[in-house]
What does this fold into?
Amino acid sequence: MSGSETLEFNFDGLIGPSHNYAGMSDGNLASTRNAGDVSNPCEAALQGLEKMRLLVRAGLGQGVLPPLPRPNFDLLVSAGFHGSDAQILEAAGKSDLRLLKAAFSASSMWAANAATVSPSADAEDGRLHFTPANLSTMLHRSAEYPDTTANLLAIFGDPDHFAVHSALPTHEYYSDEGAANHVRLSSSHGAGGVEVFVHGREGVSAQTRFPARQTRLACESIVRSHGLTHDRTLHAQQSAVAIDAGAFHNDVVCVGTLDTLFFHEHAFENSKDVIRSIREAASGAFELQTVMVPDDRVPLSDAVSSYLFNSQLLAWPGEDKLVLLAPTETRETESTRVFCEEMVASNGPIGRVEYVDVRQSMRNGGGPACLRLRVVMTPAQQEACHPGALLDEAKIDRLQDIVRATYRDRVSEADLVDLEFANECRIAREALLEELDLLELA
Ligand code: SUG
It folds into this structure.
């Protein structure tokens, strides 16, 4: 799909064949709660692709980021394991299960953490900018950025249109989790926007019980390298209360698009000041619409367990108001279901809630918004990006066929030492890459 106007594309992470419940993310309550459960990678990938199909059917731009090579033998070899593949897996399984789990993690599915993206309308040099996230807080995620960078370069490699920067240094001063802590607001996708960068801590000192995964320095570094104008860029602090309630990324308590911000009362350290600053930065360009959810309507605990805010907020073709694409858990949680019913009946900017089943991902703390990276592209950028990564329904059908043919429907910890499983993961990924015309990544 490429058009004559600037469009927002959602690039979803294609859920990989090694999707499993390793319980590796401290502060992510779902990951901890479901640790050790049996996963179903086949169902997970089909659910993710059905979500993509929903957007394609609506006429929205949809792309895909392929899964990363797993198991990550580079990680295991760098930790001193050696010999044949089978010997490496066996030795890691005996002496460092945590490292073995990290090597099999399919966590790149949460594409909102792949990078921070600034559309060309916001950047001094008129290019579309990406900074792959170093994800340095969690061991299993910290190994993603080299292959994520390769994915982005394969798709957005044309330097006349795109700038794919290096990830920030992997020191804890620079902890960066990408677009999950970044909101862009604007009058239309193609117009210059206000970019809000959200951090959980200023330096290394911890003011929270759970890890604050984004630093202010990381945000400031990205603002500088993307060449963003200062009067349209601002910084906000995640509230410690939200982090400690399980909102390990800001997108667990806040989502925004175009002129609308939908957020929990306790999303930011000082939500009133944040809103005032956004209004000031937007003045002359658009009038900010806000939907603030008070804690006495939806307590933080329900916001985190239902993932109300980890929804995609979309300008749906043919509809006057925005559509919230929410996880089915939001309908099953009393407070969030009632809030959504009243919200769409009110006069606000969100006119409809559509529910989507991404349970396999949800059980690791990843909702609809975690699974996608938003990329606003001008018509020329749509032409310049790699067409293999853009989806239509026929391609989704073919990807689902590959998933059904190559993915397992049960994966538990015991499978991670099995050479046959490791080989299946490689074969499945190569078949997907071939379909996406991205075999250069194999
Ligand atoms: O980083 N879960 C991911 C979920 C990321 C959600 N992304 C956004 N909110 N944008 C994380 O905590 C769990 C993996 C495991 O335990 O197996 C995990 O990595």
